[in-house]
Structure formats: C-alpha cells, structure tokens
C-alpha cells in the first residue's frame, strides 16, 4: 500500500535572479513499512524534499499525497493538525524541550492531541523502555548524552503513532556506538511495528541498513535501488 506518492515535484529558489531547482521534477512512491534512505551530495535536495513531504515547506509545483490526501491543498492550520497525527520527525539537532524530562518530551505531542494523562504516561513509558531509556525517564536533555537525546527524539516521533517517520541526518552528531544502537532500534521498530522510516543521510551506516536507497543529484532522482529486489 502506497503511503506517500510524490508527483512531478519542483522547489525553485531565486539566486541573484537565476532560478535554482532544489527539487527538480521528482516522482517517487513510498510503500507502507519501507526503510528508505535518501542520499546524495550536499545541495542535492534531500532535506528540501523531506521538508516538503513533512509539510514544513511548500513545493513550487507538483503534488505530495499522504494516505491519499494532497497536502498542498491543506490550509496552514489543517496541515499542522495533519502533521501532528500522521508524521513523526527526528531531527539532526534533536529539538528536545530543555525544561522537560525525557518522558515529558515524549508525551508532548500526545498532550497537544488531547490524550488523557494515563494514556500519555503509559505510551511514553513503553516507548522509552523500547529505546533503552527506561531508567532515565526523569532526566532532562542536559543530563543525557547525544545518543540518548536522539533516542528520546525517536520515542517522541513515535508517540502519536504516525503513518511514517522522517529522519533528517539523525546520526550526524552521534559516535559509532550510538549510531549503531539507534539504527538497531529503528530497524527493530520498522520490522516489528511496520513503522515506515525515511532518512535523509550522508552516513554510509544508515545506507547499509536501509532496504531501499534513493540517490538525488541536482534535485533529480539519479538512482533508486530496492535491495529486496536485487
């Protein structure tokens, strides 16, 4: 089942009156349960593509359908609500709220969704245990290592039971051991809970784990390798 369908997508910027196509005519479908890495050199359009799919940026032309909904047609308010319920984000910079504990950070989206405290509490505890932080729920981000903070970010991304998770360079600030642990956790969640993960990455370790690798160059898809098929 297709969870994301991208059709004839363009994102054009003006640079000294010269149009620059950050995303240049991309057509791409993502099936439910995929573990996909989007790769390419700096400036190839990886992050721009993820931001458009996540509703954080608008395309100049083309369509992005998520669960059959053309998100370009949604108002700003409806897009915010759609994003909150359908999409999980894991950012390179973690983006945790410093004054909240690990558990409170994971609960935050559920709080915005209006979930009751008992349900938030149970879900956050379950997820933090799943990412190996069951004993660190009451620690604030400043008392966690980079790898631990990124695992909190993964738990937070999954808290709302999204359709898929977008991870923009999630291992960029992590050492080898933390990267390995994080990727193992995400791979396990992908296989056991069928959560769809889409990474933008330069990290060969992420590429090695991915079952599909889409390469961008100058905003265009240069190659699309499904390891399960070849």
UniProtKB/TrEMBL annotation:
Keyword set includes Transport = yes
Query: One Pfam family from the UniProt entry?
Result: ABC_tran
PANTHER family per UniProt: ABC TRANSPORTER ABCH.1, IMPORT ATP-BINDING PROTEIN
One term under GO cellular component: membrane protein complex
Under Gene Ontology molecular function, one entry of this record is:
transmembrane transporter activity
Source domain of life: Bacteria
Which segment of the chain is annotated as a signal peptide?
Answer: none
Segments forming domain ABC transporter: 4-229
Q: Which keywords annotate this record?
A: ATP-binding, Nucleotide-binding, Transport
> Is-annotated flag, keyword Lipid biosynthesis?
no
Give the family, as the similarity comment puts it.
Belongs to the ABC transporter superfamily. Macrolide exporter (TC 3.A.1.122) family.
What is the protein named? ABC transporter ATP-binding protein
